[in-house]
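Posting for a labmate who doesn't have an account.
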Amino acid sequence: MAVTDRRTIGTTRRKSWQRAFAVRLFATDALVVSCVVYGSQLLWFGFAPVELVAEGGLDLRASYLAVSVVLVVSWMVMLDVFATRDHKVIGSGTLEYKRVADATVRLFGSFAIVAYLFKLEVARGYFLTALPIGLIVLVLSRWSWRQWLRKQQKAGGYLSRALLMGERLKATHVAKTIMRAQGSGLLLVGALSQLDGHSRRPIQGIPILGGYDELIRVVDESQADTVILTGADEINPEVMRRVGWELDARDIELIVAPALTDVAGPRIHARPVAGLPLIHVSYPAFEGARRWTKRSFDIVASSLLILLSSPVLIGVAIAVKRSSPGDIIYRQVRVGRTGEAFGMLKFRSMVQDADDQLESLLDAQGTSDTPLFKVTNDPRITSVGLFIRKFSLDELPQLFNVLIGDMSLVGPRPQRAAEVALYDDAAHRRLIMKPGMSGLWQVSGRSNLSWEDSIRLDLYYVENWSMTADIQILWRTFRAVAHPEGAV
């Protein structure tokens, strides 16, 4: 009994950070909702006691103060009903934000239906102010807490201690993916695998702590609170069921990692058939309405950005002209959608004959046969060019490429024909979309990325495109430009 109590207390202590973080979110949500609702009431009615009256013979009278109380409580209940503070979604991904938006929109939709059915004379401004402002501030507060959580996790706190369980090859793949991702919230403390021959060798630096039949002992000794099942022939359905029961008794979370790589949540649909959980994977589609939506967004946003940045465009053009002899705009041939070449526009940041010097510089540093043709400490870059590259000002003319349809605001990295010639079959899939001014490559290291990582990020974007992801990448782009790294 004492052993069981110690295990329960240990697990509770290890998972306390998730509950503590959820409590922080609850307190912030309550503060935001209260301030927004009562702020909207004061904005429209001040401190005067105003009553809400029902037409149609119903004797319903209530002050807007009472309506505000009901709205605040209902809003908090809806956020709980939609599991916006569930530990499986908080801290990573976009599902948390989506649930917050769904809960808010459903709440106000319900209030609108009730007001219509009972013919309540509701001040539209009261709700039309509370809804958008409340949603925006709620999302911003969640985002702020997520940044705080990232800092805590980088310092080694607020992490789930996880064990990998499965064949070495599959466990290695999962370990690489988790260790590469930022903000997973998982600390890999050990692995369990089949013990034979040299299988005691660590997996990506993660020690092998035992075999499959030693799971419970290893869980207790490593103080793990999560087990990630990566798959193995020896782990049949009966063994998995027993493992689930044993972990449930200790309140240990079980995660099953399918053999799917770089597939985002919206493309995955689970459907149970006779007790067997089948996972359906939708293929990426980028035609019809989806393509029209992205193109419409590009036209509107690029036009607006050209208008707003026109003073900067003029200023940079003057600085480039005065920096060295040559053209202001540099037109570089890149490969676009379906492999068609186009002229990508940039402010000239190098000397006029820079292209003629490229091959000799690559030969000198020994990288002429590698992709992503980058010259280290490139002597061709002018002083003005160094500055505008650092803050990505040289790329502003690409807004005109976006406007005329050669590029998109967000997309795969635009590459040269010589780089495309090095593609394998998988890499060619990135050509089904227009190249972007920004993309996952832009907000994940830019020129500091390896060739493999650059292709992997582009493929992930193409396979999982969504309008929400584009907006999120654009937001991260502004942050990346403000804190430039790997831009030259």
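Reply:
Got it, the structure tokens are right above this. The first helix runs from residue 2 to 14.
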